[in-house]
Amino acid sequence: MQMSVLFTISRNKDCSLTPPPSFLFFNLCRPQTTFQGNPKLCKIRGKFHGRQRRSHPTSIPSSPSCSSEILPPEFAEYVAVLPVYDDEESDECSVYDHTKVDARHFGREAKEFIRRYEPGDCTEGAGDAKAGDYVLPEITTLLLVGPRGAGKSTLVNQITRVFDKDDEPSAPDRAQVSGSSKSKGTVFLREYPFPRNSTAICIYDTQSLSSNPQKNFKTLQKWMTKGISHGEIATGKVNIVIFVVDGVSILQAIESNTKDYIDILRETFMYPFLSIGDDKPVVVVTHGDRLSILQRARVQNELVDLLGIPVQQIFDIPGSDDYQTDLAILDMLRYCIQHAEQNLPIKLSYLLEVRGRETSKIAAEQLMALDAVIEATIIFLGIAILLLRFSDKLLQS
Ligand SMILES: Nc1nc2c(ncn2[C@@H]2O[C@H](COP(=O)(O)OP(=O)(O)O)[C@@H](O)[C@H]2O)c(=O)[nH]1
Ligand SMILES: [Mg+2]
């Protein structure tokens, strides 16, 4: 038996939490609930991934970085030391243990990151720009979009529960889930800050998309351009869209070759107003608890091909209440926050200041060049005068 340094968790310059290597391993083996740390299950997913060569690096694309500030203790470098066994069987066992430990730490850090989050936390350091140079939202707004029954309201309750587990374990669900004969599901837009008392981040549950894409586009365009509001609460701009789809329906549609369902889904997902900057919506696949591991992997890979997004932008979040699902939720939220901040607009005053600085730099360079020309001319004239005087004297003598 030997001892080995296993992983570090640190806050990156771009404000992302670096999942420990074994969490990446775990994360790439989505769906998390059943894949966690099990190399055999990862191999199953690998089979599908052979086809999917365009998957992007797991790290978030470079975002405006968060400066070289001294990190708060909870983001401080963490090093765990655990035993590693030599034989192959023990290796698997140890990878599993390590993955569990890694995942637990990642989960804690990610939860703490969201609890402490303030709009602008991840913007500092892009060029000279500071958080104050961006147009910061009062509250960062995530918008849930998806077909009826996809699980949008269930997801709101799951997100709330992840934080309620620490704060208020017996608190009731907030969003109305459809399915019971009494409930019509979500009828109006509803705002849900999370954690419940947050003033920094909220998620909007929406009425479901209809089977008429044109009608959907009209509503979506209104929400995305004019902002959304809940009752009399001030209207807010959407910072990122989460597209929720039911994995079971997708699989059924693929297997029965039901093109209509898939086409509407794709068309709606690709609707330009749902993209913010270059970011297409984040995808959450629900109902994984009703599918096998192979089927879940297949749904994810089909979505990669269908929607043209990297697998890291697709989160498998089944309606289960367990630690691995909580991790998947936290990972998805962290991704949403980072991407929302990357697309914040820069203030006009900052742009003018930068333009002014550039203009005066160019003017100074031009002046210096002019200065050099004048100096050269003076020297040339001086030499010419001296030569003329000299030749004059020669002629006189
Ligand atoms: N088994 C399972 N059921 C789910 C899941 N997500 C949602 N549901 C169920 O699907 C139905 C519709 O969910 P709801 O959240 O109201 O969908 P919405 O119309 O998109 O808001 C409800 O009966 C939920 O309990 C999931 O991941 N797994
Ligand atoms: Mg609903």
From TrEMBL:
Keywords: Membrane, Transmembrane, Transmembrane helix. Residues 143-267 form the G domain. The chain crosses the membrane at residues 367-388. It comes from the Eukaryota. One of its GO terms (molecular function) is GTP binding. It holds the Pfam family MMR_HSR1. This is G domain-containing protein.
